[in-house]
Amino acid sequence: MDNKTFAKQLEYRTRQFGISIIKLSTTPPNTIESNVIRNQITKSGTSVGANYREANRSRSKRDFKNKIKISESEASETQYWLEIINDMNWIEKDRLNSINNEAKELLALFTAISNKL
């Protein structure tokens, strides 16, 4: 697979991840505490793909690396919020595991891309 095809597929994948995070964020109970987590996970989960998309439109290699590092950081933060949601038992384990596995895979991908630069 060439770089352009890979980039297009990863953009699609991160967009789908953002959508799954938005859908997941509607599930926790409607409390002040869960609203804080809901906002945090929605911001970090959608930021993964937004920053990756920006990386693909970067003006320099340095700009590309910076955006990739942000995507990596946002994927890691999303995992953190997923762990909190899991510990609070707000969402079914099977549903959470699926999204958490995707977060782990995206984090691994962005870490690998970043390490290559």
Automatic annotation (TrEMBL):
Record-annotated membrane-spanning stretches: none
UniProt-recorded name of the protein: Four helix bundle protein
